[in-house]
Amino acid sequence: MEDILEVLNQTPGVQGSLIVGKDGLVIASAGSTEQDPDFLGATTAELYSSVESGMMERFERGELDMLSMEANGGHLFFKNINEVTYLLVMTSQDINLGLIRYDIRRASQALQEQL
Length: 115
Prior knowledge:
30% strand, alpha+beta, 115 residues, 3 helices, Beta-Lactamase, 5-stranded antiparallel sheet
């Protein structure tokens, strides 16, 4: 799994990536982040869960596949891997969104085969 994350982290602008259980436990991580990976896993699992339930119940859009968030300091991408895990990718502000999304989907497919 770490080798898939390392390849993903070679995408220009990617700062770090994590495989997180939907319970908030970090399964694997790669790259440099300013935050403790366990803190990121726990806090983002809560956020992901909240958005996911909103998509299914309130907006009636089905299961959440990918979530992206923009901030002044960069982007966060959450990609569903399977029913119990997701991929969190942190990037800088100046990125090629199409390339990042493509590489995240490719990494997610490879991780589905391993998990």
